[in-house]
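Quick one, tokens below. Sequence please?
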């Protein structure tokens, strides 16, 4: 269902171009979810989130990644979810334009690789230390994914809205405390 929203676009301010699309569907292994997408025909803004039909418990999902088997685990990341890989000192924090997505663990790692490459491409010669850090990080991730060195990573999803999930038999869920929820919001 697509419908106009009676508010101006938060990016460009155009009052007649913001639309919302809501689509409810069954996501394999996750159950019924509603995908909400806001889009602006004027500036191109697009923001998506996935809202589960049930079970909105603010929580933390953690998966220890020890082999390529865990790379195929399905994930749903809500737009308010913080994603961390502590061993690589990588984290993505939600912002105003964060979008939710459905992927797998390898897809999450590839999103980090893309972000590192974007950062790397913005560096210049004076940033040689940062450039070297990016190259070392990319090399380490590549060697892990290709089996040249053992995979030892932890994937963490911290979602104060309860819209995110890691679907793997070894994934561990716990409810977030009120203090953790406040820190994340």
């Amino acid at each position: 269902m697509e419908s106009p929203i009676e508010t101006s676009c938060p990016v460009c301010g155009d009052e007649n171009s913001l639309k919302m699309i809501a689509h409810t569907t069954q996501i394999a292994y996750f159950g019924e979810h509603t995908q909400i997408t806001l889009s602006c025909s004027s500036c191109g803004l697009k923001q998506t989130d996935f809202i589960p039909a049930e079970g909105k418990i603010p929580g933390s999902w953690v998966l220890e990644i020890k082999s390529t088997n865990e790379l195929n685990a399905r994930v749903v990341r809500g737009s308010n979810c913080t994603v961390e890989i502590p061993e690589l000192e990588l984290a993505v924090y939600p912002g105003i334009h964060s979008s939710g997505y459905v992927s797998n663990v390898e897809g999450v790692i590839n999103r980090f690789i893309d972000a590192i490459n974007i950062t790397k491409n913005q560096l210049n010669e004076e940033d040689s230390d940062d450039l070297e850090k990016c190259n070392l990080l990319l090399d380490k991730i590549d060697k892990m994914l290709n089996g040249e060195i053992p995979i030892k990573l932890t994937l963490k999803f911290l979602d104060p809205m309860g819209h995110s999930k890691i679907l793997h038999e070894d994934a561990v869920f716990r409810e977030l405390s009120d203090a953790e929820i406040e820190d994340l919001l």
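Residues 105-122 form the longest helix (18 residues). The domain at 1-54 is CATH 2.20.25 (N-terminal domain of TfIIb).
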